[in-house]
Specification:
467 residues, eight-stranded parallel barrel, 14 helices, 38% helix, binds 6-O-phosphono-beta-D-glucopyranose, GH_1_N_CS, Glyco_hydro_1
């Protein structure tokens, strides 16, 4: 794989505040929606009472241990670390006039620590959480008022960190609100489709306003969106299957279309009409949406299939989406279908569609790791998964796709989003903590740690094409 990756390729890893930081009420932080989901985004929404505890309350204690963790990332040669700011650390209830200084100071310390090693931050403004206060008082993104609260938050952090953070993302996996409305837009899980799309509309306007604010406030700053890259293939070549696949892919590409092109795509008119959805979209909203992102970012873990044949329509839960399994692919221990070639296909599809630089900001294998008696962890399966995906990234670059970087998901073990498990591990670095919260939180290098270090040091030249 010689010479395929550009010299300035941003190699690194990605985490999210609510899955690593812990310290869930420290230094004035308010409750976030994630704190109400102790069992993960598919668990019940649990109002918190004094004495309640959840695994994310401590997570991997990144809030206190970040200097050690950043040093380990630096040892692997990271050029970039993606994390998020917990909105409720900055505006604990969401609607305050002034930010919480202690929350701001934490991220100053974190970014300064990264700067010591030349690691560039890539910062998500909202990764599966918002201040819980905004859902209680305003109904989350169901309310137009939330646009203004988000804009205030975005402007606050752009102004504060404009010399430290040059790469930003607005909403993590913005398309997932269709499947997990509380996590995505702070609405009850049983909300109807019209209410969800109205909340999504508010979020899209807020995203565009953040793009504008970033362009105004951050010198040389670049801001992208973030899509769950849930690519689907037709299970057969029946024309009906192909058409249905196009329709289902548009469910998520719609978000990218608005964010990258600056207006609702034509195909949504029919969709809204046939589903009896009438959105309130003002002239000012349309104007705001015209401010488009600088690059497209996305997560990629798996692909799935679509069929119109009822007899074959058995779905497997794949992260947030339900997908028909592809008979040509194997699955991870969690049933996610492994498809490295799909990543090359997706990169080409997104580049053809948007002609904007792409950033793969999540990709990885969740697996159960075993610590041997001598303390070593041989995660060859993870190396194979990542190698095979990166080989396809190199191929896509060779196809002419502009790829800015690659941040693998969970370079250090963290709490999984879907079910709040520690045992679903993605890391190059092992964290001694189990699903019940027992363990010393000690960090250990896995075999993949040394492998990823070599990949970065060789700028991808040591990757091995299959067979
Ligand atoms: C993405 C999310 O959907 O998938 C991450 O952006 C999440 O927050 C990742 O952790 C993997 O999912 P899970 O459920 O295995 O943690």
């Amino acid at each position: 794989m010689n010479g395929k990756f550009p010299q300035d390729f941003l190699w690194g890893g990605a985490v999210a505040a609510n899955q690593v930081e812990g310290a869930y009420l420290t230094d004035g932080k308010g409750l976030s929606t994630s704190d109400l989901q102790p069992q993960g985004i598919f668990g019940a929404i649990t109002p918190r009472k004094p004495g309640d505890s959840g695994i994310k309350d401590v997570a991997i204690d990144f809030y206190h241990r970040y200097p050690q963790d950043i040093a380990l990332f630096a040892e692997m040669g990271f050029k970039c670390l993606r994390t998020s700011i917990a909105w409720a650390r900055i505006f604990p209830q969401g609607d305050e006039e002034t930010p919480n200084e202690a929350g701001l100071a934490f991220y100053d310390r974190l970014f300064d620590e990264m700067a010591k090693y030349g690691i560039q931050p890539l910062i998500t403004l909202s990764h599966y959480e918002m201040p819980y206060g905004l859902t209680q008082k305003y109904g989350g993104w169901g309310s137009r008022a939330t646009i203004g609260f988000f804009e205030r938050y975005a402007r606050t952090v752009f102004e504060r960190y404009k010399h430290k953070v040059k790469h930003w993302l607005t909403f993590n996996e913005i398309n997932m609100s269709l499947h997990a409305p509380f996590t995505g837009v702070g609405l009850p899980e049983d909300s109807d489709r019209g209410a969800i799309y109205q909340a999504i509309h508010h979020q899209l306007v807020a995203s565009a306003k953040a793009v504008k604010a970033c362009h105004q406030l951050v010198p040389g700053g670049k801001i992208g969106n973030m899509l769950l890259g849930g690519i689907l293939y037709p299970l057969s070549c029946r024309p009906e299957d192909l058409l249905e696949t196009q329709r289902q892919n548009r469910d998520w590409l719609f978000f990218g279309d608005v964010q990258a092109r600056g207006a609702y795509p034509a195909y949504m008119r029919r969709f809204f009409r046939e589903h009896g959805i009438q959105l309130e979209i003002t002239a000012e909203d349309r104007q705001a949406l015209r401010e488009t992102i600088d690059f497209i970012s996305f997560s990629y873990y798996m692909s799935g299939c679509v069929t119109t044949d009822a007899a074959q329509n058995r779905t497997a839960r794949a992260n947030i989406l339900n997908m028909v399994p592809n008979p040509h692919l194997a699955s991870s221990e969690w049933g996610w279908q492994i498809d490295p070639v799909g990543l090359r296909y997706l990169l080409n599809l997104l580049y053809d569609r948007y002609q904007k630089p792409l950033f793969i900001v999540e990709n990885g294998l969740g697996a159960k790791d075993r610590v041997e008696a001598d303390g070593s962890i041989d995660d060859g399966y993870r190396i194979e998964y990542l190698n095979d995906h990166l080989v396809q990234v190199a191929e896509a670059i060779d196809d002419g796709v502009e790829v800015m970087g690659y941040t693998s998901w969970g370079p250090i073990d963290l709490v999984s989003a879907s079910k709040a498990e520690m045992s679903k591990r993605y890391g190059f670095i092992y964290v001694d903590r189990d699903d019940a919260g027992n363990g010393s939180l000690e960090r250990k290098r896995k075999k993949s740690f040394y492998w990823y270090r070599d990949v970065i040091h060789s700028n991808g030249n040591c990757l091995k094409p299959k067979g």
